[in-house]
Amino acid sequence: MKKYSNLMAMMALPLTAFFFWLFYKKENYNYTEHLVAGMYMLGFCILVNTLLILPISLLFHLSSNYQALLFLLFQLFYFTLFYYRFLNKSTKLQLVKAFSTSAFGIISWGIISGLTVNAYVSTGFWGIL
After folding, report:
1. Of 108, 87, 111, 129, which Cα lies nearest the Cα of 14?
2. Which of 34, 74, 94, 109 could form a Cys-Cys staple with 21, CB 3.0–4.6 A?
3. What is the pLDDT, as a whole number, of residue 120?
4. Are 49 and 55 in contact, with CB atoms under 8 Å apart?
5. Domain of residue 100, residue span
6. What digits encode the pLDDT tens for the residues 42-98?
7. How far is CA 45 from CA 2, 27, 41, 60, 70, in A?
8. DSSP state for residue 52 in the 8-state scheme
């Protein structure tokens, strides 16, 4: 996981963009615009991961699990803040909606990727791959 964390984050992008599009349909942005916004958000998160989280985890000898947790927490915080400001929202309820949508996207990706890995390990995808 540590070796492929950036790839896994990029693979989550279409699903995350779909959830943001679904929850913010009334904002008149189409799926592709949410996908592009997601690329900017994720690019910044990967940059922060590379320049801050990874050196901090190496400096304090943190395990890869803590490093992944720090990355996910930062990603959740940044996605929430990004969409809150991107859509020019101003109320606390809208901030909670941005947080909920971000958390839902990240948790959904975790569940889907976990189920996929489980299916691969237990069945080998029935010899397809």
Report:
1. 108
2. 34
3. 80
4. no
5. 5-127
6. 999 989 999 999 999 999 999 988 998 999 999 999 999 999 999 998 999 999 999
7. 15, 24, 6, 20, 11
8. I
Average pLDDT along the chain: 89
CA distance 22 to 16: 10
- CA dist 71 and 111 (Å) reads 17
Find where tokens 């237990």 sit.
122
Q: Identify the residue whose tokens are 């975790």.
A: 110
Rg from Cα positions in the chain:
16
The mean per-residue pLDDT over the stretch 2-11 comes to 71
Alpha helices in 1-129 (DSSP H): 5-23, 31-48, 54-59, 64-86, 92-123
Sign of CA dihedral 28, 100, 78, 75: negative
**Cα 46 to Cα 5: distance, rounded to the nearest angstrom:** 9
Number of domains making up the chain: 1
Q: b vs e for 25-61, b when ≥16 Cβ sit within 10 Å of the residue's Cβ?
A: eeeebeeeebbebbeebbeebbebbeeebbeebeeee
